[in-house]
Amino acid sequence: MKLNIQRRQLLKTVGAFFMAYGLDIHAENLSLSAPSKSETEMLSAFVDVLIPRDQYTGSATDCQVDKQIWSLAESSENFRRLLALGCEGLNATDGPSFSELSYQQQYKLVSWMAESDWNHVPRRFYEIVRQTALSLYYAQPETWQGLSISVPPQPNGYPPPWN
Description:
Layout: H1 2-22, H2 37-50, H3 65-73, H4 77-91, H5 103-115, H6 121-138
């Protein structure tokens, strides 16, 4: 019975998220100033779903990726607008906010975003934030633990496998 309630809550959450992007949200109504507490919580939870903590390295927020993304947004109005729309959508659920959902519910919602239509905000938010987060995360040498590299492959390229 508990599983059905969680499933129902997830369906309501995904439905509300989808409906939020069907609404006529005008960019001029979005705040492009410093991120709100709600926005920072949404983005932190989102990037931690994309890059969770494992046995070797910390999560995206452990490595300050969320803060670096907000810093990048200061120099790009379009990127800041995308973050505002994406965070607003993550928070436009009929129930708890995205950051308060269980990891499994967050993961299912992010998986849905990854499969949604590219021409809508959820997919664009997912793709652009994902690429940015991965680039910022793996630019830090401390995140290479557990990988078979110890230095960046450029400018020398990957060493031959027999070395």
